[in-house]
TrEMBL record:
<keyword id="KW-0501">Molybdenum cofactor biosynthesis</keyword>
<dbReference type="Pfam" id="PF00994">
    <property type="entry name" value="MoCF_biosynth"/>
</dbReference>
<keyword id="KW-0808">Transferase</keyword>
<feature type="domain" description="MoaB/Mog">
    <location>
        <begin position="6"/>
        <end position="152"/>
    </location>
</feature>
<keyword id="KW-0548">Nucleotidyltransferase</keyword>
<dbReference type="InterPro" id="IPR036425">
    <property type="entry name" value="MoaB/Mog-like_dom_sf"/>
</dbReference>
<dbReference type="InterPro" id="IPR001453">
    <property type="entry name" value="MoaB/Mog_dom"/>
</dbReference>
<dbReference type="InterPro" id="IPR051920">
    <property type="entry name" value="MPT_Adenylyltrnsfr/MoaC-Rel"/>
</dbReference>
<dbReference type="GO" id="GO:0016779">
    <property type="term" value="F:nucleotidyltransferase activity"/>
</dbReference>
<protein>
    <submittedName>
        <fullName>Molybdopterin adenylyltransferase</fullName>
    </submittedName>
</protein>
<comment type="pathway">
    <text>Cofactor biosynthesis; molybdopterin biosynthesis.</text>
</comment>
Amino acid sequence: MTAKIGILTISDRASAGIYEDKSGPAISAFMAEVLTSPWEAVARVIADEQDLIEKTLIELADEEGCCLVCTTGGTGPARRDVTPEATEAVCTKMMPGFGELMRQESLKYVPTAILSRQTAGIRGGALIVNLPGKPASIRQCLVAVFPAIPYCIDLIEGPRLETDPAVCKAFRPG
Ligand SMILES: Nc1ncnc2c1ncn2[C@@H]1O[C@H](COP(=O)(O)OP(=O)(O)OP(=O)(O)O)[C@@H](O)[C@H]1O
Ligand SMILES: Nc1nc2c(c(=O)[nH]1)N[C@H]1C(S)=C(S)[C@@H](COP(=O)(O)O)O[C@H]1N2
């Protein structure tokens, strides 16, 4: 079964074409590197508008049937940063360990890692994971949390994700 992976770039400027989106493609490149089981990307680029973020997350999870949705951008303290609020609004369960681990890992690279309010949660058969907007942060964060993602997706009855252990070894207890 081909796993659908949602890649949601949330950036006023990338969505307006002021700069090229580099963070969505960085998520796609990481998935291509880590996943050895079949997958396909469902990518969107939108502005930092809470209603639009919620609507797009619902569409990726419920209509497209993505088992994993990675967002990038809008996790900071600025007035228009509302990705965590939108994520929480559409999820039935929050998974705070993802944000905790990603912030801890990001602190190895930038002291401003604590400014990201990135989180994760479950909506139906989808795990939604927030990543910061900076293109370089994508790999730094995903490498840290990816070992737990395939088992999390098993638990929500999604497709079995297999990884390249040279990039990231998936851990399945038992
Ligand atoms: N999707 C992206 N593609 C390329 N670069 C990005 C992207 N998102 C952010 N960046 C870079 O990271 C910097 C900080 O990102 P941040 O998310 O704080 O942007 P922002 O000030 O909220 O503006 P915007 O919502 O317009 O991206 C940006 O100035 C930009 O250089
Ligand atoms: N790994 C990593 N995490 C990071 C950063 C980064 O460059 N690398 N930038 C930080 C900064 S400066 C901010 S403001 C917050 C929020 O970024 P966002 O609003 O683009 O999501 O993420 C933080 N987390």
